[in-house]
Amino acid sequence: MKKIFIGVAWPYANGPIHLGHIAGCYLGADIFARFHRLKGDRVLMVSGSDQHGTPITVTADREGVKPSVIAERYHEINSRALVDLGIEFDLFTKTSTEGHKREVQDFFLKLLENGYIYEKETVQLYCPHCKKFLPDRYIQGICPHCGYEEARGDQCDNCGKILDPMELKNPVCQLCGTTPEPRTTKHMFFRLSALEEQLIKYVEERPYWRSSVKNFTYNWLKSGLRDRAVTRDIKWGIEVPVEGWEDKRLYVWFEAVMGYLSASVAYSEMKGDPKLWKEYWDEGMDAEHYYFLGKDNIPFHTILWPAMLMAHGGLKLPDNVVANQYLRYGGEQFSKSRGVSIEAGEVLKKFSPDQIRYYLAASMPENRDTDFTWEDFERKINTELVNALGNYVHRVLTFTYNNFGEIPARGNLSEEDEEALQVLKKTLDRVENNLEKASIKDTIADIIELARFGNNYMSRTAPWSLIKEDRGRCGTVLNVNIAIVKGLGVMLAPFLPSTSKKILTGIGERDLRWDEAMVVPGTGFKLKKTEPLFHKVRIEKESFPEFERLNLRSGDVISV
Amino acid sequence: MKVDLGEKEPRTLVAGLKAFYSPEELKGKTLVILSNLEPAKLRGVKSEGMLLAADHKDEEKEIVAFLTPTKRLPPGTPINSGMRQGAKKINYKQFSSMALRIAEVVDATHVDIGGKIIEVTPHKIETGERVAVYVDGKREVGPAGIILSTGTAIPIIPEKDIPIGAKIR
Asked: Are residues A286 and A173 in the same domain?
């Protein structure tokens, strides 16, 4: 039994989460967690709403409310959407809790004590019109790397590079459009540069990272590590636990990643076992640490968070950092800020969680950006989920119910039966192997392929003919088919939890573990009449039939 | 009025624009023409199509603005928003049951059609621009509207300022 810690990127509480987020990290993490729980491993999976920082204050300023109103509103909405999608966190918390603040301040003081935090005078952009120092997100300008014109002070949305506001060309204040001027102020800095060698070694020791994660990280390391400010001029955030720093707050990049630790501590307290978190986090413990995130979050999890953990000492560093590319819509990246979005809550009103989970797992942007279209959604659900999987399970169970009423006994196996069971075994092994590596997309495709194989085996062995000629042989063939159905039920559990439950309950199984998938189905179990697992979905195409009756053309006026 | 649609012969259109535009104001302008409308005799003249214009009326005044592309187009360019175009004739009743409105762009997938924000298929038009939008109120999934444009995404806009929500006829 292994101990698995899973940290999933914290969604900013300044908007509802959309399909891009779900495909980006939450679904993959949940499948991975459910798989390990199924294997009997101990899993601790945490995340929460990132409630501080300027994206929230910008939204609050725009709506004329307190930042906490925005932060709580989206924490509620997003917690609900995640639960409704069946994303099972051990704890989904938020960064505005007292517990998080305490852990963050303790962590900060430890870094200060260890000499990794120091104070420095800096030049920062000041808006003479708004009369304040501008935090990075309040500044917009041209990206010095790619020339994107709407780059924010902290990061360029186009090339993904992390920026210092001073690097932007033609900077303007987001609030009033004034060109800000550089002025001197003081900030606390994290001595990232001192950890460069340790970080290079750390990355080299993890050759199993996805190549996109490795490349991104190496590129960052190659350009050299600079110390980073950990405080900023803003009122909404965690106080700096040092006298004389009352008007500054800890920087959100620095504070939010500590949520992984503080949420683990909070979970332990919730369970009445305050030391529990140490079993996952103490350096000497044999826990494995996995992080799931979208590609824009890579450097925070492969460089900054490991560096902070090194500076702190005594805590486990991330093992695998699983980052996905983007799910896009209409050729653009899903983006709350630019309004290209399909909200999770909206989709849940129209489709079941398992339909959504299936589509997103089958289209997961693991290695390249992937385009979401409603046509593709319809096609995948109807041809793969309904025709291949649903049809096979329904065919087997209905035929067996009608002719035997129970799971028939397995007699002598023919060569064909043996081969079918081999295919099942091989699929199980491959699926297990791929899920260990958190590879989702190929795995679900493999499972659907097994359902297709099952359909084929069913047709080849033709139990509807056998039933008239050789009832015993017919029973054996059906028993083997039910073994495949059972295997499908177990393998689908991490992906489509309620479908898996429906399949397994139908053949008298419950609470199965992974290694029980190949056990011969329970002979004699009384079957019930089954309903189809899924129904086809029909999406109105991105076409407008009425509109397409019009024939509009441009015309130039010659005379009146 | 005679309009060049890139066909052999120009088409004759009867339009009720006299009260709003002088002949000089219209001459040489590019209009959006519904070209598959069944020809009908209007004021004694056979009209072979209809030009699209937005109309806003309140207690004080009536504003009419004809629709036009943002760029010069060759006569007869399809205004199909990247979709198929009708091959059969349609009658005026069928056309008038469709909702076409002036809207303001909110973001890459939403427009404001006057007190109501609807989803439209993704586009690249800047926030705040006024555009002509086709609205399908019956769709349950996906966008409820589409911005009128050429196949190459050149948008169709009102020729002059007119309030959001103005009906297009």
From this structure: no
Give me the number of domains chain A comprises. Answer: 3
ipTM of the complex: 0.96
Any idea what the CATH number is for the domain that residue A499 is in?
Answer: 1.10.730.10
- The pLDDT of A382-390, averaged and rounded, is 96
Question: Cα B82 vs. chain centroid, distance in angstroms?
Answer: 15
Say which residue, B141 or B59, is predicted with more confidence.
B59
Both A187 and A63 in a single domain?
A: no
CA A392, CA A373: separation in Å to the nearest integer? 27
| Cβ pair B28:A556 closer than 8 A | yes
A457 in a domain, yes or no?
Answer: yes
Six token digits for residue A395? 């065919």
* Nearest-by-CA chain B residue for A544: B136
With 70 as the cut, is the pLDDT of residue A480 above it? yes
pLDDT of residue A340: 60
Of A231, A249, A267, which residue is a domain's last? A249
Whether residue B169 lies within 8 A of chain A, CB to CB, comes out as no
pLDDT tens sequence across B125-152: 888 899 999 998 766 666 788 999 988 8
Q: Is B152 exposed, middle or buried (0-12, 13-18, 19+ CB in 10 A)?
A: exposed
**Six-digit token string for B143:** 């966008």
Place of tokens 């983007």: A326
| Token pair in block for residue A528 | 């019930």
Domain of residue A235 covers: 114-249
Is B121 at the interface with chain A, CB within 8 A? Answer: yes
The radius of gyration of chain A from alpha carbons, rounded to an integer in Å, stands at: 27
**Per-domain residue ranges for chain B?**
2-168
Give the nearest chain B residue to A339 (CA atoms). B107
pLDDT tens digits, one per residue of A390-420: 999 999 999 999 999 999 999 999 999 999 9
Does residue A53 have a pLDDT over 90? no
Tell me, yes or no, whether A495 lies in a domain.
yes
Distance CA A446, CA A435 (A): 12
CATH number of the domain that residue A300 is part of: 3.40.50.620
Q: What pLDDT is stored for residue A477 in this prediction?
A: 97
Q: What's domain B2-168's architecture? A: Beta Barrel (2.40)
Mean pLDDT of A131-149: 88
Measure the CA–CA gap between A295 and A297, rounded to whole angstroms: 5
* pLDDT exceeds 70 at position A542: no
Strand partners, B68: B157
B146 touches chain A (CB under 8 A): yes
How distant is the Cα of A540 from the closest Cα of chain B, in angstroms?
Answer: 7
Residues A259, A386, single domain; the answer is: no
Place of tokens 């420095």: A120
